[in-house]
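Task card 7
Instruction: Convert sequence to structure tokens.
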Amino acid sequence: MTLDDLISTARDAITVRRVFGDPYERDGLTVIPAARVMGGGGGGNGTDDAGQQGEGGGFGLVAWPAGAYVIKDGEVTWRPALDLNRLAAAAASVVVAVLVTRAWAGRRSA
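Output:
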């Protein structure tokens, strides 16, 4: 795969369809799912001392559920998604910070 092919593939992968899913209707509601999408890439080419040429590159794409737009009777509302992994990581960080602070305060008073 050439560098131009890679860039073309990356451009096709990073589209609005990665952010907004296909809307679907059920019981008078229209739901449009949405995601947070982040991507990046890079590439290059060069020649070594022996005159050999090479090129390469890569890209990555990450997506997380963000929520959904819900349309009912002409009213649009946003329903955020709950990311349990992020919530658990935040709670664990708070617990660790409290434990470290207590240990540090206990050493200072001793």
